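Title: Comparing notes on inverse folding

I've been comparing how different people in this forum approach sequence design from structure. To keep things fair, I'm posting one structure and asking everyone to reply with a full sequence. Here's the target:
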């Protein structure tokens, strides 16, 4: 796998102001994403996992430049996307695309499938020569496993899994290099999730795509990811290869998440101790000082309230953000 990253995220921060009163004055800020850094290599899938509200979807919008970062850089092929303007920014829209979470609401019910998949060509006509749009739409539908002759049907005539395939076809229309998958299977039945994940894996091999795969289901992320970033309250607390994260987690939060994953082997159930976290996730508008996980961590000491732990290798060979990290083997 090439080592030169196609996407480099450097110390990205996104704070949303909290406004109140008649004059809508800022009285605080929500720290949705706080100093996040990682690389994405060509042909790689980086899984991003964490509880609801940890900043995963905000991170997705930052990578697509649907939100402007408060600070930090996102480099696509070495160029900061937040400095792009005009024609160059328009070109970026072709290079980085998204597969949205809910196929029931992300598709316009008044548009045919052909119109939905061909919509990117209306915005970027240079992506499909004149007279070739219909053929290109049929090719895309066939690529994702749908009947190319069904392009005149409407979204309500398809199942949930088929609708998500339509969304994937739309996302691939402009031949992007990077696809951000924001909870792409969370709205689907479990029986359909594996089919969609397998489709994404096949498309990656055939088209050379790079994925940022965002989800809260650890089993789904494990099945498709090369590397995994674990987020908690706007920060990455552990980052490593899939085998490292799932086999030898070092951060207490990662260990707690993995302890809740059901084991497929019934003889192993109950062997590994379940870690129950106390309390609720703190508000991103008022996060704890020091380590943000300390209010729920069984290892927390005074140092955790005073020092923000850096994301670096400690007990494990991969980086984590815990002053007292230690590797814990997980049954798989």
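Reply #1:
Here's my take.
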């Amino acid at each position: 796998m090439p080592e030169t990253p196609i996407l480099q995220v450097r110390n990205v921060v996104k704070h949303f102001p909290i406004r109140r009163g008649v004059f809508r004055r800022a009285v605080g800020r929500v720290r949705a994403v706080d100093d996040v850094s990682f690389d994405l290599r060509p042909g790689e899938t980086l899984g991003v996992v964490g509880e609801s509200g940890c900043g995963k979807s905000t991170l997705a919008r930052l990578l697509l430049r649907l939100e402007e970062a408060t600070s930090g850089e996102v480099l696509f092929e070495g160029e900061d996307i937040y400095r792009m303007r005009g024609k160059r920014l328009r070109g970026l829209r072709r290079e980085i695309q998204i597969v949205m979470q809910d196929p029931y609401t992300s598709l316009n019910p008044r548009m045919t499938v052909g119109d939905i998949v061909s919509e990117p060509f209306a915005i970027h006509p240079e992506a499909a020569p004149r007279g070739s749009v219909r053929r290109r739409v049929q090719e895309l539908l066939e690529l994702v496993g749908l009947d190319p002759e069904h392009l005149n049907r409407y979204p309500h005539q398809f199942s949930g899994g088929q609708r998500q395939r339509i969304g994937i076809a739309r996302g691939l229309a402009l031949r992007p290099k990077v696809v951000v998958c924001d909870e792409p299977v969370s709205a689907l039945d479990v029986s359909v999730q594996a089919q969609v994940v397998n489709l994404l894996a096949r498309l990656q091999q055939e088209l050379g795509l790079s994925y940022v795969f965002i989800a809260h289901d650890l089993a789904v992320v494990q099945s498709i990811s090369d590397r995994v970033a674990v987020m908690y309250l706007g920060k990455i607390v552990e980052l490593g290869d899939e085998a490292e994260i799932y086999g030898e987690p070092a951060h207490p939060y990662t260990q707690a998440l993995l302890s809740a994953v059901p084991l497929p082997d019934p003889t192993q159930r109950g062997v590994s101790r379940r870690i129950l976290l106390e309390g609720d996730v703190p508000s991103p508008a008022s996060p704890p000082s020091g380590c943000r996980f300390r209010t729920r961590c069984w290892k927390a000491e005074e140092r955790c309230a005073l020092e923000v732990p850096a994301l670096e290798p400690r007990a494990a060979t991969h980086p984590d953000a815990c002053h007292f990290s230690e590797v814990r083997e997980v049954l798989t």
